[in-house]
Amino acid sequence: MTRYVATDDLQSWGRVVRTSHRVARPRWRDEILALIAEGTSDEGRLLAVGLGRSYGDTCLNANGSVIDATGLDRIISFASASRLLRAEAGISIDAVLKMIVSRGLFLPVTPGTRFVTLGGAVANDVHGKNHHSSGTFGRWIRRLCLRRSDGQELELGPNDKTGLFAATIGGLGLTGMMTWVEIELSPIDSAMIESEIIPFSHIAEFFQIAAESENQFEYTVAWVDCCAKGASLGRGLFIRGRHAKKGSRLAQNNRAMPVIPFDIPSFVLSDASIRAFNAFYYWSGRRKAGRTTLPYWPFFYPLDAVGRWNRMYGSTGMYQYQAAVPPDAAENTIRAMLGVISAAGKGSFLAVLKTFGEKPSPGLLSFPMPGATLALDFPNHGASTLAIMTKLDAIVREAGGRLYPAKDGRISADMFRSGYPNLQAFTRHVDLGFSSSFWRRVSA
Fold it and tell me: What is the pTM of this model?
């Protein structure tokens, strides 16, 4: 009797791709072996997924089988003295934070949303506002358990000599299914963040502030007005912060969040409205400039304040474009990218710019590299949107940069290969029973 159910409802966060899947939702780890066997028995295409916050198609397996791991969400062990937490891979960062913050602990690295699973954070080797000080999520993984399609159950750690651990960190779920993950946590004194907002007038000023901030502040990030032109090209708001020494250890805000109940009509997403939003946000941010102390959740997860915020991009969805470029080329490359966007009049509501540090990731396919990264959301307007991203591809590639698979929904195989020099070494560890829409597109 099949454990998989056909559905057309599975989507990534960008909501551009709409396709059919067969989905299984286990509640216990002892179900996984049979589900893997069944899921790979026909066409050999299976993928384990979490909360679906990847924007493109790395979390999709069109017309194939998917194991939804979110029911595997239990804490297995927790040692406060060693700060080691072992939990099933389907547990969310939100659930982990609710448990650890009141105990004076925090995740060493967190992405911009707490609604991702532990396994998803490993599979995408996520980064946060503190890459310059702590590197990627994968640097803090001490053990993980991997189920392969040949029936093997492997416990792996950083000292693994086979290369499979390195392939699994940032491996997009293609090396098998993670069933549990052990991570080393970081100590904190309170749940509060000392934060400062600094307006900047152009790209050169951003890099100056970033260089001055990295030794004093654990967390740095910037919002950029990608519609500004001329002398104001690249103006924005620099945000830096660090954990406060004093304050409450309240785990998080338990107030109900507002939810966008329907897709926003397309006329609201006009180029004029995006320009107006960027101008207003910059003006508003300048008024709020200065220092403040605030709880951790609005600092790390501002978008989580609104449920299903992806609906603001309408029924056709959105593309996110995130590139990383090396330090020597970073300032000129970011300026050139923003110039293309500004000239085309196709801005983004959410343009995020930050620097990456020198700490290497253990993952073969990890996205961060020393330098800078720019992330942009584009409403899906079809060919015109794809044309802009193709122009950005050329700029990034010339600079020796790469694109982030977790955010991608249209990168070419050639562009992907050019950005990931360890791709051939990674491919040797791909479990042939596992695949994804993304992998079939870039490995063709």
Answer: 0.95
